[in-house]
Amino acid sequence: MIRVGVVGATGYAGAELVRIIAGHPDASLTVLTSRQYAGEPFETIYPAMKGLIDLNCEVFDNNSICSKTDVIFLALPHKLPMAFVPDLLKNGKKIIDLSADFRFSDPATYEAVYQLHTSKDLLSQSVYGLSEVFTDQIKNADLVGNPGCYPTSVILPLYPLLKSDLIDVSTIIADSKSGASGAGRSLSLATHICEITESFKAYKVTGHRHKPEMDEILTAAAGKPVDITFIPHLLPMSRGMESTIYAGLKKSVTPDEIHNCLADFYSGCPFVRIYDHGIATDTANVRGTNFCDIGFVLEKDKDRIIMMSVIDNLVKGASGQAVQNMNLMLGMDETVGLKAMPYPI
Amino acid sequence: MIRVGVVGATGYAGAELVRIIAGHPDASLTVLTSRQYAGEPFETIYPAMKGLIDLNCEVFDNNSICSKTDVIFLALPHKLPMAFVPDLLKNGKKIIDLSADFRFSDPATYEAVYQLHTSKDLLSQSVYGLSEVFTDQIKNADLVGNPGCYPTSVILPLYPLLKSDLIDVSTIIADSKSGASGAGRSLSLATHICEITESFKAYKVTGHRHKPEMDEILTAAAGKPVDITFIPHLLPMSRGMESTIYAGLKKSVTPDEIHNCLADFYSGCPFVRIYDHGIATDTANVRGTNFCDIGFVLEKDKDRIIMMSVIDNLVKGASGQAVQNMNLMLGMDETVGLKAMPYPI
Amino acid sequence: MIRVGVVGATGYAGAELVRIIAGHPDASLTVLTSRQYAGEPFETIYPAMKGLIDLNCEVFDNNSICSKTDVIFLALPHKLPMAFVPDLLKNGKKIIDLSADFRFSDPATYEAVYQLHTSKDLLSQSVYGLSEVFTDQIKNADLVGNPGCYPTSVILPLYPLLKSDLIDVSTIIADSKSGASGAGRSLSLATHICEITESFKAYKVTGHRHKPEMDEILTAAAGKPVDITFIPHLLPMSRGMESTIYAGLKKSVTPDEIHNCLADFYSGCPFVRIYDHGIATDTANVRGTNFCDIGFVLEKDKDRIIMMSVIDNLVKGASGQAVQNMNLMLGMDETVGLKAMPYPI
Amino acid sequence: MIRVGVVGATGYAGAELVRIIAGHPDASLTVLTSRQYAGEPFETIYPAMKGLIDLNCEVFDNNSICSKTDVIFLALPHKLPMAFVPDLLKNGKKIIDLSADFRFSDPATYEAVYQLHTSKDLLSQSVYGLSEVFTDQIKNADLVGNPGCYPTSVILPLYPLLKSDLIDVSTIIADSKSGASGAGRSLSLATHICEITESFKAYKVTGHRHKPEMDEILTAAAGKPVDITFIPHLLPMSRGMESTIYAGLKKSVTPDEIHNCLADFYSGCPFVRIYDHGIATDTANVRGTNFCDIGFVLEKDKDRIIMMSVIDNLVKGASGQAVQNMNLMLGMDETVGLKAMPYPI
User: How far apart are CA C181 and CA C312, in angstroms?
Assistant: First the structure.
């Protein structure tokens, strides 16, 4: 049984990790940390778990967590993980960090968006945890920087087409929409039900920090600089993320060619489902699951493609992909613990 | 592997059965019927299931379903099951019927609320499928009449107190609130999002057909006639049901006495969770699960108890309890296939 | 033109007062106060008002507000108003206080639920602002204690029946459900969309501070002590409140007798609409309006009545009734400024 | 008093017309037609209107409606209006048609998307009712084809920039999101609360019939053919529409230049509010109102503009704009009857 610790277990991504690991046949929760709720039983913070999780939250302690775990998930705001990770690695732990701290290969990019990076030397050994794209590197990694939710939803549909050099990279636009759980459990007027119900809006229209993360990976895929246009929006709902992506094609292609390009790239990837041409995706179809569903439509006479992708921002966009990465790092089937059937409604 | 057929697989209760059975380690879906969608792949009706359910819907055919199944769930409107069940039973099938057709022991009660009963002789052998209450009878049954969602949410908290003769039966009031999925997938103005969002209302205030079902079981528990007051309400949400129940106590009791009465009765019942005195339940805590959470508060000086119970109307209120009954009928652990961890949000 | 000040203008009740007064043909907003947003244009706090409200928020200042207003609404948490009101009254202002500070005639009741009352002497001159019940007193008042939302929804249906001595007062139960705007704009996990969407729950089941307020008024109506059972619940929506009220009747009555009792009492009351026997009310029917809709059903053989009432908790439950009271206090038609047609959906 | 008839009064656009006209100081409802509800009081179909609308629904009858009205709104599915309009015009009525029947100047465009047009000769005299753009023509019109909701939300932000030749017309992309009320009151699985809550999806991705309507007007604005990319999406809410529009600029411009271009064009237009550069719009800010709020952001180094516009699809996107057009046609102030203050939440 793999012993698992979740650092920051009471935020939404942390609690979702608790849910998934608690149902994982080969893993067992041994440590849950929370500064805010130290000493309290996890089930009092999340009463849905009454009778199901028999652990108290504790303050993070390096020695304690190292003695009790094999794998550690960090579900903390950025900046904190880079302080904790070096010691955990030295103790031989496998680390999946859900913050931005270990997502970038170039510290300068990180520092331009976040703050000074204090563990720059680890960036070269950390792997970007987009499970379907960097599978082999993840299998060999001790430290994974788990992708942001927006990057996951935008990169997965685009990556195969960029690799196949089908897209004019100067034309890429991603219009993304996220459920409110992406903003986390911290209190904010933006997630007050009276402010968000019957409301839809763009936000951070002058710059969102997930954009450099997308650009870095898409640039690697294209083999040339990519600088997409990205506008995030907030949905009046809890879970779910959709990205509608517009791009000019470098040449005329048929729907079959696009479908094949995607299907070939994601062949053997159980969590990516490719839709037929002209069929729209729906966040409801992936709610609570680790799936990323991808659809597309070609515009006649315009050599423009519109792609749609949907994920559950807390699962494939965060904790589900994190567990998928753990499975890969430990040489297990990537679907273990992630096979719960989706709800029909 | 138990071979399972779901008749009426494309309604919400049917689709929820499909979800649960598809994740059941000892059962396998072999037949899905749907008049409306005959010939279509189930996954095109519920795209969430894309790649997960490899069956087409078919028209109900007695011979075909008998040759391919061991257990049959009927998720049909009342009246249809009583026509199908006799032949299915003769063919040795185990039947769980989610309609009202086999819930009543007295055909007169059924006929007063629904219509003429054409299989009256089977009522004596059918068992009311409230799993925690009629466990032993269910284990020996070939035909189970699965309870309605309102009755499940009202009877579970009251039954132990009535058995212990703690309640003045003339005073029982159940104020129940249901998510809209209880109304099913059929189209109706009442479930149009524009009519129901930001709306809350009572309905069927002059009589709901679930009331006689409650009265029959509560009468048996009390050993004297029970005729409760029951007002159902419609919530602006999809899944979840709460009942707040008011009753006069026959004598002064302490919170501990009530807690013990409930905890003793449901000792060994993994799907019933009893809350401490004064702690309110929340439908969110049981969403997607087979739990029934029960809370209560005593009013000082009034000898009045207020009980709260919450269920997911599609799971413990319908398809989850149906699978729990199947497990019991087949001598398996009642929790098999029903252990998916709840979502924290 | 009546000059109106709103103290605490940026909370939900305050902002709703701003909305209504801004559309009032005989009143004009002259002062908006807000500690949190002092100095900021109101329209930046509520961008819906862009171009419509040309006032900045200011810090409360007794001299300033007295020089610029004729009527002052206090939309503050309890405790603050009792400090401000004495001076405002001395300056000849008409005051409508939306907190609990001036709702009770007996300071002991107030102090048992809230805290020490520092302006006890004013309680005898303040009038409880349930517009339809205390109309004449309100017309002559300088200080009105505007009712709580729950009390408004519970007292309006019960008052006529208690006055007519139709109800056994020991049997009254009010099961009330409120939209989340009743919790105000302050941040709290309870109103986080991810916690409240697809959730329904009771809360404060061991005691809510609106209950003594109801008991005081109902006791006056009945002419004998009333101590109701009251359980509030939280709805997954923004605006709207429903109370389902159960009570034993002292004698058999017909639906017509009940209807007449209600219709007679509320004759000439444009904001109370009485439904026919057996017709359920719906919060959607009063959303955004100052209406209170009342329905009822009689249970055969039980001498029990079930009443339903719906209001918009921010309008008839707070700011709308406050403006209705202002109209009465100033000798105007009570409907002025409150006639906006309801939205069909 | 202007006598007004609403044909198709019980659909959502019709009922919204009823709401607005009932509150219009210079107009009076005299005829409401509905095939489905003929003979029934309007207030029984929309109980929110109880006591407020004293008219029964009637079957459409040309003579009757002509004798009782001065202005007629048609809130019907396309195809029906073109049969009714010729006779109504002959009788001297002013007509505002909310269907697509009289929106196009070229019948071929209409027929390519809808069906055979049987009143082609009237297309030359009908005016496209985008109130702020075709103001003068509307003032002189007897027949107005009221715009679709998507076209209103897309054309208003783009028109001034196209007129000023700032945009490369080959690059225009409109990513639009609509509340479910745009789908109308007819029953459909797409608007079932259980299918739409916690769901977000694109739809009609291979072609929506509002696109040719946009292209025709934008082509006129640009003076050259415009063929935009348009993807509509469905929001899990009732009212509100947002369009995020992406376009390449023909030259570098400053935020001030864009702001001035918009502000100059909409100078004197009380229902268009221009936001400062980088400020996002929100459908909640225009809910229930006739406003169109427009925001924008310029992308450095890319000569790309992103525009955002929000409307209430039932008001500025349908019935509010229709009344605004009536006001213009009758020589009144365009805001009469449309000044209700927005709700803060």
Answer: 10
